[in-house]
Amino acid sequence: MRVCVCRVCARGCADATLRARLLEAAAALADLLLAAHQQHQHHHHHQLAALRRDLIRPYVEIGQGGRAGALAEKFEEWEVLVQLCVDAGDLPRLHALIDKYAHEVIFLFIIHYNLLKVLQQPFRDCNCCNC
Is residue 126, in this structure, part of any structural domain at all? Predict the structure, then answer.
Protein backbone atom coordinates (compact mmCIF):
# COMPACT_ATOMS: atom_id res chain seq x y z
CA MET A 1 0.00 0.00 0.00
CA ARG A 2 1.39 3.39 -1.01
CA VAL A 3 0.88 6.38 1.26
CA CYS A 4 1.51 9.77 -0.24
CA VAL A 5 3.32 11.91 2.31
CA CYS A 6 2.21 15.19 0.76
CA ARG A 7 -1.48 14.19 0.79
CA VAL A 8 -1.28 13.09 4.41
CA CYS A 9 0.49 16.36 5.34
CA ALA A 10 -2.01 18.50 3.49
CA ARG A 11 -5.00 16.91 5.15
CA GLY A 12 -3.74 16.16 8.62
CA CYS A 13 -1.75 19.18 9.68
CA ALA A 14 -3.62 22.22 10.98
CA ASP A 15 -0.49 24.33 11.52
CA ALA A 16 0.27 26.09 8.21
CA THR A 17 3.96 26.59 9.01
CA LEU A 18 4.46 22.96 9.95
CA ARG A 19 2.46 21.83 6.90
CA ALA A 20 4.69 23.95 4.63
CA ARG A 21 7.82 22.47 6.20
CA LEU A 22 6.45 18.92 5.84
CA LEU A 23 5.51 19.52 2.20
CA GLU A 24 8.99 20.91 1.52
CA ALA A 25 10.58 17.87 3.16
CA ALA A 26 8.31 15.54 1.17
CA ALA A 27 9.29 17.34 -2.04
CA ALA A 28 12.97 16.97 -1.14
CA LEU A 29 12.42 13.26 -0.52
CA ALA A 30 10.62 12.91 -3.87
CA ASP A 31 13.54 14.70 -5.52
CA LEU A 32 16.04 12.28 -3.96
CA LEU A 33 14.00 9.19 -4.91
CA LEU A 34 13.58 10.36 -8.49
CA ALA A 35 17.27 11.26 -8.81
CA ALA A 36 18.28 7.82 -7.52
CA HIS A 37 15.94 6.04 -9.94
CA GLN A 38 16.94 8.27 -12.84
CA GLN A 39 20.47 6.89 -12.69
CA HIS A 40 19.07 3.49 -13.68
CA GLN A 41 16.43 4.69 -16.14
CA HIS A 42 17.82 2.81 -19.12
CA HIS A 43 17.06 -0.48 -17.32
CA HIS A 44 13.81 0.51 -15.62
CA HIS A 45 12.21 3.19 -17.80
CA HIS A 46 8.61 2.15 -17.07
CA GLN A 47 9.22 2.01 -13.33
CA LEU A 48 10.74 5.49 -13.41
CA ALA A 49 7.77 6.87 -15.35
CA ALA A 50 5.33 5.38 -12.83
CA LEU A 51 7.40 6.65 -9.91
CA ARG A 52 7.50 10.16 -11.40
CA ARG A 53 3.73 10.20 -11.74
CA ASP A 54 3.20 8.77 -8.25
CA LEU A 55 5.50 11.32 -6.62
CA ILE A 56 4.60 14.44 -8.61
CA ARG A 57 0.86 14.26 -9.29
CA PRO A 58 -0.19 14.42 -5.63
CA TYR A 59 1.32 17.91 -5.44
CA VAL A 60 -0.95 18.95 -8.32
CA GLU A 61 -3.95 17.40 -6.58
CA ILE A 62 -3.41 19.40 -3.37
CA GLY A 63 -2.77 22.68 -5.15
CA GLN A 64 1.02 22.72 -4.90
CA GLY A 65 1.57 23.51 -8.58
CA GLY A 66 4.90 25.23 -7.96
CA ARG A 67 6.42 22.17 -6.33
CA ALA A 68 4.86 19.88 -8.92
CA GLY A 69 6.18 22.05 -11.75
CA ALA A 70 9.70 22.17 -10.35
CA LEU A 71 9.84 18.38 -9.93
CA ALA A 72 8.15 17.80 -13.30
CA GLU A 73 10.64 19.97 -15.15
CA LYS A 74 13.67 18.56 -13.35
CA PHE A 75 12.66 14.94 -13.97
CA GLU A 76 11.05 15.47 -17.39
CA GLU A 77 7.48 14.60 -16.43
CA TRP A 78 6.24 16.47 -19.49
CA GLU A 79 2.57 15.62 -19.19
CA VAL A 80 2.29 17.16 -15.71
CA LEU A 81 4.33 20.19 -16.75
CA VAL A 82 2.16 20.92 -19.79
CA GLN A 83 -1.06 20.26 -17.87
CA LEU A 84 -0.04 22.76 -15.17
CA CYS A 85 0.44 25.44 -17.83
CA VAL A 86 -2.81 24.59 -19.61
CA ASP A 87 -4.84 24.51 -16.39
CA ALA A 88 -3.40 27.84 -15.24
CA GLY A 89 -3.79 29.39 -18.70
CA ASP A 90 -0.11 30.32 -18.53
CA LEU A 91 0.67 30.63 -22.23
CA PRO A 92 3.93 32.58 -21.76
CA ARG A 93 5.28 29.74 -19.59
CA LEU A 94 4.06 27.15 -22.09
CA HIS A 95 5.76 29.00 -24.96
CA ALA A 96 8.99 29.24 -22.94
CA LEU A 97 8.85 25.49 -22.29
CA ILE A 98 8.23 24.78 -25.97
CA ASP A 99 11.29 26.85 -26.88
CA LYS A 100 13.40 25.19 -24.18
CA TYR A 101 12.37 21.58 -24.87
CA ALA A 102 11.70 21.64 -28.62
CA HIS A 103 14.34 18.92 -29.05
CA GLU A 104 12.27 16.50 -26.92
CA VAL A 105 9.89 14.73 -29.31
CA ILE A 106 7.70 13.39 -26.51
CA PHE A 107 7.32 16.91 -25.09
CA LEU A 108 6.09 18.19 -28.44
CA PHE A 109 3.68 15.26 -28.71
CA ILE A 110 2.21 16.06 -25.29
CA ILE A 111 1.85 19.74 -26.26
CA HIS A 112 0.01 18.70 -29.41
CA TYR A 113 -2.24 16.27 -27.53
CA ASN A 114 -3.17 18.81 -24.86
CA LEU A 115 -3.89 21.52 -27.39
CA LEU A 116 -6.20 19.17 -29.26
CA LYS A 117 -8.06 18.45 -26.00
CA VAL A 118 -8.44 22.17 -25.32
CA LEU A 119 -9.65 22.90 -28.85
CA GLN A 120 -12.27 20.16 -28.63
CA GLN A 121 -13.82 21.63 -25.48
CA PRO A 122 -16.78 24.00 -25.87
CA PHE A 123 -15.99 27.65 -25.25
CA ARG A 124 -16.78 28.82 -21.75
CA ASP A 125 -17.56 32.42 -20.89
CA CYS A 126 -16.81 33.66 -24.35
CA ASN A 127 -16.35 37.42 -24.13
CA CYS A 128 -15.04 37.93 -27.63
CA CYS A 129 -18.38 37.77 -29.44
CA ASN A 130 -22.10 37.33 -28.88
CA CYS A 131 -22.19 33.58 -29.36
Answer: no
